[in-house]
Amino acid sequence: MPSAPSAAPRYALARLIGGQVCLHASMAGMRMAAPLLALREGYSALAVGVLLAMFALTQVFLALPAGRYADRHGIRRPVGLSVIAAALGAALAVAFPVFPVLCLSALLTGGATGTAAIALQRHAGRAAHDATELKRVFGWLSLGPAFANFLGPFVSGLMIDYVGELLGGQAGSLAGFRVTFLLMALLPLLSWYLVRRTQDLPAAPALGTGTRRTWDLLRDPMMRRLLLVNWFLSSCWDVHTFVVPVLGHERDFSASVIGTLLGAFSLAAVAVRLTMPWLAEHLRERVVLSGAMLLTALSLGIYPLMNSAWTMGLCSVLLGLALGSVQPMIMSTLHQITPSDRHGEALGLRVMSLNGSSVFMPMVFGTVGAVVGVSFLFWTVGFAVGLGSRMAWKLKVPTLPHSV
């Protein structure tokens, strides 16, 4: 088994992964349950797109400040504030399960997850000592969101379907949604329990003088190319998250089946990431990224042609295998091309660029899906990501230019 970073105490990385799972699963469960409740209440696909966009909106404005805050204060303070925001957001949905409050809950849980992720990734990256260890560390750390994206939707689907019946009502009742939201409010508290004893690493010395601007990072062509490749792949993740509940609702799948489809995607991502720490020495970032983009294009092309839950599940697994391999390679590349005292800011820039598009992309998805159908979304995004694979091939990572 590949060892955790030597600078971290025993089991420190496992605690970070566990903390990230609990916080991210809270958001993932909300992101699956809230749109289903909106659809149950008669809201349109466009309204669902707006609701999903709210999970990303806060991160657009918070990502850069959160990254700089993590550079100054380490890991515990940002994670603690994130736990409070996530628990509050889910608790509001328990008390007031109406569309405007669901949007507010999405803002709080989405922003909390993004802020905590930046602090956790910065801490883990700074604990690594070379490029191979970076890929290994982020291979392990990336298991957190992947497993959380399985756990949150899967548990939410089961709760929505069966809690109402247990309470004397029917499947999909409002009581089931409320209990689901309550569970999502408790998960962040467990996250804090796991992360609160993590020891902050010494602050990195500033590599330069004068005023530092985010634009300085964007002047690097490698950074621009990396952000664009990451955006292509993130759009594929977003379109899958958006379209599967809509397709499932149109085909009369139950909430638990829809949750299982989303969970199969995430479980496949977990499976491929489990292999990456062992293969870290043999993996090359640009090879993995370009291959993942081509496989993603193929998966999106055939997904709308599948009509049964089983065949859709197979496509979800294939797509999860492709997209699951991406994040460790992206994070390894980013840490190798960024000054060590600006890792948090660079991570914030990445989160901001991704979620900036995620704010309007679900609304675009909802509009286009309402006009020409959701199948067209899969094919358009698949074609675009296939063309973008050439850009990923050009991501030649040099020997570490800065201390990790």
Description:
The protein is an all-alpha fold and 404 residues long. The protein is 79% helix and 0% strand. It has helices at residues 12-40, 45-73, 76-95, 99-127, 131-141, 143-166, 174-195, 214-218, 221-250, 255-279, 285-302, 309-324, 326-337, 343-372, 374-393. Mean pLDDT is 80; it is low at 1-10 and 400-404.
pLDDT < 50 stretches: 1-10, 400-404
What is the straight-line distance between the termini? 23 Å
Main sheet record: none
Task: Please work out how many helical segments DSSP would assign.
Answer: 15
What shape does the CA trace take? globular
- Secondary structure class reads mainly alpha
Tell me the number of strands: 0
**Helix coverage percent:** over 70%
Strand content: under 5%
- Give me the Rg, rounded: 20 Å
Mean pLDDT: 80
Task: Name the helix and strand elements from N-terminus to C-terminus, one letter apiece.
Answer: HHHHHHHHHHHHHHH
Overview features:
404 residues; 15 helices; mainly alpha
Describe the structure in brief.
This protein has helices at 12-40, 45-73, 76-95, 99-127, 131-141, 143-166, 174-195, 214-218, 221-250, 255-279, 285-302, 309-324, 326-337, 343-372, 374-393. It is mostly helical.
